[in-house]
């Protein structure tokens, strides 16, 4: 059983994104981080977009990521509690990771309490005001009808379409992200709205790709975990403090 006491949070690995050579390199970096934390981690939260695309057919899953999945299996076998969030890129997770890794799969938000502190966790997609087009698309993509229709495609075709789509994403084009200011960052605005209704000590998101740690008040903070293409950032709770840190191999 795991003897670790820390809780780790990370998101937006986008494994499988174009080009594949960089995805393989990123996978090795992520594995080095997981290997580094293996002796002090008690719980690991992967907060969405772990894969650039994921779809589970009844008997087929996307190939690759074997070293990453093997490292997760090693941690789980040591007693680490694993929780995986569905992101906007890998929302079509069903029961594969539950069966193989005993992972808890989270569709949307998750509230946890640890060491007398409350944590609000969400990948971050579709939150806050605006972006109505995506919110409509999200409902459709998450629908049983859409999933059934996609499952009718042969895996070579379905995964091939997703791979071609990945080549035109903001990641493949290396589009820069810039902090818009607290008033314009929609996840900070959403956290403020939530805090006005119910207090949480920490709001932890992914999706935005920019790492930041912002105080909402003396009692509350919002943290975006950032991504692993450029930043390699994650958060760790040691029972007393929550810190946003950067991994460098």
Automatic annotation (TrEMBL):
UniProt-listed InterPro entries: LpxH-like (IPR043461), Metallo-depent_PP-like (IPR029052)
Molecular function terms from GO: hydrolase activity
Keyword terms: Hydrolase
EC number(s) recorded for this UniProt protein: 3.6.1.54
SUPFAM superfamilies: Metallo-dependent phosphatases (SSF56300)
Protein name: UDP-2,3-diacylglucosamine diphosphatase
Organism, scientific name: Sphingobacterium kitahiroshimense
């Amino acid at each position: 059983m795991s003897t670790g006491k820390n809780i780790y949070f990370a998101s937006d690995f986008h494994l499988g994104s174009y080009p594949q050579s960089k995805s393989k390199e990123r996978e090795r970096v992520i594995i080095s981080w997981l290997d580094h934390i293996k002796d002090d981690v008690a719980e690991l939260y992967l907060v969405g977009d772990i894969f650039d695309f994921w779809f589970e057919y009844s008997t087929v899953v996307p190939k690759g990521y074997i070293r990453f999945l093997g490292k997760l299996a090693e941690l789980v076998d040591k007693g680490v509690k694993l929780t995986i969030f569905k992101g906007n890129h890998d929302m079509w997770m069903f029961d594969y990771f539950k069966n193989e890794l005993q992972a808890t799969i989270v569709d949307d938000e998750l509230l946890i309490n640890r060491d007398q502190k409350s944590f609000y966790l969400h990948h971050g997609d579709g939150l806050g005001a605006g972006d109505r087009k995506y919110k409509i698309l999200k409902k459709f993509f998450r629908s049983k009808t859409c999933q059934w229709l996609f499952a009718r495609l042969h895996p070579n075709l379905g995964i091939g379409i997703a791979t071609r789509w990945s080549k035109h994403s903001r990641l493949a084009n290396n589009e820069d992200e810039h902090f818009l200011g607290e008033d314009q960052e929609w996840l900070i605005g959403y956290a403020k709205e939530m805090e006005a209704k119910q207090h949480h000590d920490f709001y932890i998101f992914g999706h935005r790709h920019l790492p930041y740690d912002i105080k909402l008040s003396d009692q509350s903070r919002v943290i975006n975990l950032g991504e692993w293409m450029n930043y390699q950032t994650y958060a760790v709770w040691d029972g007393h403090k929550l810190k946003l840190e950067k991994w460098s191999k």
